[in-house]
Write a structure and sequence with these properties.
Number of strands: 0
Radius of gyration: 13 Å
Shape: globular
Order of helices and strands: HHH
Largest sheet: none
Strand content: under 5%
Helix content: 55-70%
Number of domains: 1
Amino acid sequence: MKTPSDPYRGHRFPAEIIAHPVWLYVRFTLGFRDIDERLAAWGIVLTYETIRPWTLQFGQSFANEPRHR
């Protein structure tokens, strides 16, 4: 049986670091720079240009999540 592959595999940051800014972007409609500043306050250094492709790649799965509840 084939196991589902990890969508975060091959990225530099762990899944929790990738998922949190994407969730913030989708849930609260914050801008990329706002999310960048929030993460910097917590000691996570990212650029807003790092967050943008993550939201394009993983954002739809976060946006669909509330519909399944």
